[in-house]
Each structure stands twice: as C-alpha cells, then as structure tokens.
Prior knowledge:
The chain is an alpha+beta fold. It is built from 18 helices and 18 strands. Strand 12 and strand 13 (about 265-270) form a beta hairpin.
Amino acid sequence: MLTDAVTGGSVPLFVENLLRGEKPRADWMCGAELELFGYDRARGLGRIDAAQVQNVLAGFAPSSRDLVHEAGTLVEVNDGQMNRLTVEPGGQVEFSGGPQRSLSDVERDLRRYLARLREVAEANRLAFLAVGFDPLRSIEEQRWFPKLRYEVMRPYLASRGGRAWDMMCRTCTVQANLDYGTPQDLCKKFLVGNRLAPVVTAVFANSPFEQGRPSGYKSTRAAAWLDTDPDRSGMAPPALRDDFEPEDYVAYALDVPMIFAQRGGRYIGAVAGLPFREFLESGRAGLTPVFGDWADHLTTIFTDARLKQHVELRSADAGGLEYSLALQALWKGLLYDDRALEESLRLAPRLSAAGSVLLRERVARDGLAAKCEGVDVLRLAREIVNLAVEGLRRVAPEETSYLDVLVERVVKEGVCPADILLRNFEGAWHGSMQRVFEHLRVA
C-alpha cells in the first residue's frame, strides 16, 4: 500500500516491487506516450493557457467521472478506452496510450486521439504541433500550468540546470513503454535502452528551431536536457556497467535527491535535495517515509531509459503519427526478439560517463551526422534500423511496414526529420516559419 511505512530495511521490497512487472512473452505489450504543443490561433499563436488546456482535456471525457481535479484544476482525463490525457509544466498535452499487444492497436488509439484533438482544436481555434522543442515562443512567453507538483519542481530544477525550465515548458517527446520477462531480460533491455538512446535521438531528431529561427541543433530538445539536473537525466549511471542488476537501479534511485513528498494532496518541498536514502533512514520535516514517497520519487527520475514495472524509452523528439509509430516498431523489433536484443547489446556503444555526455552533445547538434568517441552515428543508426526490421519480421511480420519510413529516410537517404525541415526551410519555404508550423501541425 502507498501509505505503508518504509525504512532502510525496505530496500528489498523496492526491488521486489520492480520485478512484479515480469510477464511471460505471450503477454508482452507496447504503450505509446506522445506530448504535443498547443497554440492559440486567435492570439497570434501564443501557447495555450491553463483554461484552454483544461477545455481540451474536458473534450475527451466520456463523463464527469473521468475527470481528475487537483485543487480545483482539471489535470487528467481518462478517455474511456484505457488511455489518459495529462498536462506537462508548460501546458503540453500528453497522451498516454494503454498497453496494446499489436502496433495496429497502438495506431488505432493514436489515430482516434488525433482525430478528436483536431475536432477540439478547430472548435476552439487552436493548433497542435508534433515537434521536440517549441519552435516559436521564448521561455518568457511560456504559460506555466498550475499543477501542484510543478510549483515545487520549478524552483528546485532551476537550481540544477540552466535549461531546466526549457525542458519543463519547451520540450515534447514520444515515448515507448515495453515489457520484460526475466530479470536478466529486464537488464538487457535497460542497457540497450540507455546505450542506444543517443542514436535513437539522432534518428528522430525533430527540433531544429527556437524562437522562429534555426537553433544550431538538430534536436534542441536534447540540448535542453544536457543542461538539466545531471542527477536524474541522461544515461542512467548503472547502465555504464555490463554487470547491471535490478538492485543497481534501486541503489541508484536511492542516491538521487528528492524533489518533493506528497501528503494529503500537498507537495512538500522541504525534502528537496535530500537523497532518498537519507530520507528513508530518518525522514525530514516531521515526515515519516511511506511507500508512496518511493513511487513518487521514481517519477522524478528522467533518464533516457528508466524502470518502473516496465521499461520506459524516452530519448526521441515528438513527431507525427508516422514517426510515433516507427518509434514503437523500432524498439519492439530490437527488444522483443532475442536475437535482435543480443545483437543490439553488442552494437550499443560502451562509453564512460564523460564519453556518453560528449556523444549526446554531438548528437544534439549534428543528429545523424555526429561522430564521436569512435561512434559513427549514421552507420550505427542504419544497423539498428535493419536489425529492428529483422527482429520485427520474426516476432510480428505483419508490423514491419511501420519501419518503412526509417528504412527510406535513415538507411537509404541518411536523414532525420530535422534535416528535412532545414532543407525545406532554407530552400522551397524561403525561411517561412508559417510553412514550418503547417508542416509540423497535427491538429
């Protein structure tokens, strides 16, 4: 129970809880999450405010029972189809799809969501973009969403990185959530998810603009993450080791500083900066640690791949439907086929912590053209796309078409979405951000 007291002796329980996600292969599923930026077409394409965000969420609720409020603010909606809509700090709307056995079912849910979002957007004179970084609005123009946890996270993260607020307000991602079988299978997937993360960032790089002009990066989202709280972002430190075990992830999370604790609907920042291990031993500010504190703490770890009772793969810029589905197919092909998983682990760069950061810096700027620490990103990207095709052909041959866009763009042409955006912006679009906007618009 979330309210059960925990102590330093509860660490084995944390490991056991993590491993409760173990499933037989026949029950493995995929879940997609997609964040989008909303803009007000009646107000010069300013980012939508809290009231508009809440109107969007309400447009998805089958009944009032499906609305979740926090201190009078609508913060979440269940759409009646096992999917949820939530809100990121800058009012980005996040779709969290329920786990599905087939990518065709993931596609159905995403299509249904985007179709309804278009209806809501049109009725309210809004527009939504699928892109990794807000291409138009400065940090001063952002409209912070009044969710209680963000009020605590905002000052703490600002003290831990120069672009933390950019990360919170001006980034969007598409994420894949996958299952695991044995603890050994979990370890392999976690290692591959972290070590191949920079390559996947390059494949899906889709944010080359900031404040209406080229930013100098292929993934401005990835650049923002590079200057955001190193305690909890980038490659998860346990993934640097070949002998990683689930206990190592728990040990790592215990040493990550807390941001808040939650009691009675209040978020308490008095624990901010305290390693969870210390909180577990002695509490803080009159708080006795409970299991819910651990569950909340895990949600504040933002590494490229992270563990709950499944593996979350978080390194890609947001993109439209085709690329969102391609991301699910890429990870499914790499991680759900044993041969592909073993080969992925062999191919994945084994770098030091400093080398991992350097590779991420190069990828943020150069995308698929990055070369660093002996890693030729385009060459490796082509290998993993082909490997994913082979893996998916063995486990779900009817789904290989979802990778066609990556075969065409990455394997054959050697380009990512940012390359195409910049080529058009500097060419046929004659520097028009309006053309960029319409290209990225999904609702």
